[in-house]
Automatic annotation (TrEMBL):
Listed transmembrane segments: none
Spans annotated as Disordered: 214-250
Biased composition (Basic and acidic residues): 214-235
SUPFAM superfamilies: Ribonuclease H-like
Any one biological process term the GO annotation gives: DNA metabolic process
Signal peptide start-end: none
Gene3D superfamilies: Ribonuclease H-like superfamily/Ribonuclease H (3.30.420.10)
GO molecular function, one term: nucleic acid binding
SMART domains, alphabetized: EXOIII
InterPro entries recorded: Ribonucl_H, RNaseH-like_sf, RNaseH_sf
Entry-linked CDD domains: DEDDh
Protein name: DNA polymerase III subunit epsilon
Length: 250
C-alpha cells in the first residue's frame, strides 16, 4: 500500500473537441517527502490513445501526432483509468488550465479525484509575472531541477506534464495542498485587467465605472476578479454565476 502522498499531473493532447477525442495522455508524479517538502519523482510516462476518428489538422499542427501512430492504440475509456487511478491512489490530480483536462477526465474515469489547476494557483502565488502559460512560467521562473530536454518537445503530453509538475512542486512548497485545492475550485483571480481601455492595469488602479463594466463580463475569471476588487473596496457585487473558465489569455 502506498504511503507517500502523491499528486499526479496530467496533460492531454486531443484530436478535436469531442468527449472521446484524446490522442495522448502524459503524466508526472509529485510526491511529499518525510520532511514535508514536495519533489518531482521518477514516476512519469505517456500513452498514445485512439480517438476513434481522424485527428483534425488544427490539433495535428500543435502536437504533430499522426493518425497512423494512434491506429493500434487503446481507446480513451480503456486507457484513462489506469493512469488516472494508479495503484496506491492520489491525493489529487493536477493540470495547467485543468478545466480542459477535466472535460475528458470525468469523475467516473478519475475516481472522483480532486483537481489542482496550476494556472489558477500561479495567478495567486506569482501575480507579478507577465504571463501565466505553462511555457512562459517555465522560462520566467526557471524552476530548479527541471531538465531542459525532458520538457521538450512542447505540446506533447509527457513534456508538458513534466514542466507543469515543477510549477506544482514549487506551489506546494509555498502553500498547502488544501489552499491550492481551494483556489482551484474558484474562477481565476487575474492580477490585472485583461481587456478594455484599462487593459494591463492592476485592479486597484481602475475607476469605478471601468470596474463595474468588467464585473458584468461574460468571462467568469474576469467577472470574479473585478468583483473581488469591488469587495475589497467595500462595494456590493452582483451574484452572477462563478463557474470556472479557462478562456482568458494571460
Amino acid at each position: 500500500m502506498r504511503c507517500t502522498p502523491r499528486i499526479r499531473v496530467i496533460d492531454l493532447e486531443t484530436a478535436g473537441y469531442g468527449p472521446q477525442d484524446v490522442c495522448e495522455i502524459g503524466w508526472q508524479d509529485v510526491v511529499q517527502t518525510p520532511d514535508g517538502r514536495w519533489r518531482v519523482n521518477e514516476d512519469r510516462g505517456a500513452m498514445l490513445v485512439n480517438p476513434g476518428r481522424p485527428i483534425s489538422p488544427e490539433t495535428m499542427a500543435v502536437h504533430h501526432i499522426l493518425d497512423a501512430e494512434v491506429a493500434g492504440a487503446p481507446f480513451w475509456k480503456e486507457a484513462a483509468p489506469g493512469v488516472l487511478r494508479p495503484e496506491g491512489g492520489v491525493a489529487a490530480l493536477a493540470a495547467h488550465r485543468a478545466s480542459f483536462e477535466q472535460r475528458y477526465c470525468t469523475p467516473s474515469l478519475a475516481g472522483g479525484a480532486a483537481w489542482i489547476c496550476t494556472w489558477k494557483c500561479a495567478l495567486r502565488l506569482w501575480p507579478h509575472l507577465a504571463s501565466f502559460s505553462n511555457q512562459m512560467l517555465r522560462y520566467q521562473r526557471m524552476p530548479q531541477g527541471l531538465v531542459h530536454a525532458l520538457g521538450l518537445p512542447a505540446h506533447r503530453a509527457l513534456p508538458d506534464a513534466y514542466v507543469t509538475a515543477h510549477h506544482l512542486r514549487d506551489m506546494l512548497n509555498e502553500a498547502s495542498l488544501e489552499q491550492l485545492l481551494a483556489w482551484s475550485a474558484e474562477p481565476g483571480l487575474l492580477p490585472r485587467a485583461p481587456k478594455g481601455p484599462e487593459r494591463g492595469k492592476a485592479w486597484s488602479l481602475l475607476g469605478e465605472e471601468a470596474l463595474r463594466a468588467l464585473a458584468q463580463d461574460r468571462d467568469p475569471d474576469v467577472r470574479f476578479s473585478a468583483e473581488t476588487e469591488q469587495r475589497r473596496r467595500g462595494e456590493t457585487t452582483s451574484a452572477g454565476p462563478t463557474e470556472p473558465s479557462q478562456h482568458t489569455l494571460l
